[in-house]
Amino acid sequence: MAVLSSARDRIKRSKPLLDWYQNAARLLPWRDTNDPYRIWISEIMLQQTQVKTVLPRYQTWFATFPDIATLAAVPLDDVLKAWEGLGYYRRARFIHQAAQHIVNRHDGAFPQNFDAILALPGIGRSTAGAIAAFCFAAHTPVLDGNVKRVLRRWHEKPQATERELWTLAQQALDASACPANWNQAMMELGATLCRTKNPDCAGCPVSNACDSAFKLDVVKQIKSNIRIRDVYWQVHLHLDAEKGIWLIQRPDSGIWAGLWTPPITELAAAPGQKPCHIHLLTHRRLHLYAKVSDVPSNGSGQWVADISEFALPTGIHRLLEKQQVRPCQAN
Ligand code: SF4
């Protein structure tokens, strides 16, 4: 493989980046612990969800599910309900499965070996690397979206493949004495200075070893490259003054898997009206059109008088608010 970083550059980056991290790191509760349960939950919550959204939910999670055994024993619906507002509910389903896996196959103790961590449902190589490094001092790199961007910019390689990036990430980590701090520093650099737009090269501790530093054309090229598709959904609001709102549970896979929503049909194209609400997912922009009807609904669903007892996606909560269907009491 052609992509290799020079030892000189690796050394040039290592100490300045770690020194900067020691002084500039944000105080975040998951950085005060090496408990693998807490690190695991924080890593999963932080995938595709912003820190400010995660912070309050991280604290309440452990009040609801203080340990892995408790989490494994509750019904999935309780976990989905606790996940409400964080989005991408597949993560909550995997967390529940992984907790049961840990109880059944590891006697309730979080596995310490990288391969055993990687075998848990919903845990990929980067998350396994984070847990192994933060909790068990393993020399395993993290390669999330922020770290990929940093590595591509350091090496001025916009087209670097996943495989090349893993090699670069491992080389960079191996040049550092502390894998936990190195991984945290890389993620922090990507989140705070080497941002997708407008990176702060002037304030960057490793600008003298970065091939893209101050090259705005290159930096712009190396940003998130996600293509978002527009989707148009008709949301059928069957309302009844006595019984509430008609909800169905969505299938186990796909968007909003396992959550409760009013019946939804996909439209072939945008109708000639403004959507009631637009909800953004990583790869989809959902245009939601409300269609209110008092016609009794058939099919597999149920009348729900109090929607606060069900796990609904945030996009549906927003739509109901805009339709002035009271969010905690539908009728
Ligand atoms: S110098 Fe600029 S582009 Fe390079 S790592 Fe630092 S912030 Fe990112």
Q: Cα distance, first to last residue?
A: 63 Å
> What's the number of domains?
2
CATH fold description of the largest domain = Endonuclease III, domain 1
CATH homologous superfamily of the largest domain - what is it? Hypothetical protein, domain 2
Helix segment tally? 13
Quick one: CATH class of the largest domain?
Answer: Mainly Alpha
**Rg on CA atoms, Å:** 23 Å
Overall description:
This protein is of the alpha+beta class and 331 residues long. The chain folds into two domains: 7-221, Hypothetical protein, domain 2 (Endonuclease III, domain 1); 229-322, Alpha-Beta Complex (Nucleoside Triphosphate Pyrophosphohydrolase). Helix content is 43%, strand content 12%. It has helices at residues 7-24, 36-46, 51-64, 68-73, 76-83, 90-105, 114-118, 125-136, 145-154, 162-174, 179-192, 216-221, 314-322, and strands spanning 229-240, 244-249, 260-261, 264-267, 277-280, 284-293, 302-304. Strands 1, 2, 3, 4, 5, 6 and 7 form a seven-stranded mixed β-sheet that branches. A hairpin with a 3-residue loop joins strand 1 (229-240) and strand 2. Helix 2 (36-46) crosses helix 3, helix 2 (36-46) runs antiparallel to helix 8 and helix 8 packs across helix 11 (179-192). The longest helix has 18 residues, at 7-24. The chain is globular and about 70 Å long. The protein starts with 6 loop residues before the first helix and ends in a 9-residue tail after the last helix. Mean pLDDT is 89; it is low at 327-331. The chain binds iron/sulfur cluster. Iron/sulfur cluster binds next to helix 9. Iron/sulfur cluster is lined by residues 150, 153-154, 193-194, 199-201, 204, 206-207, 210, 212-213, 219.
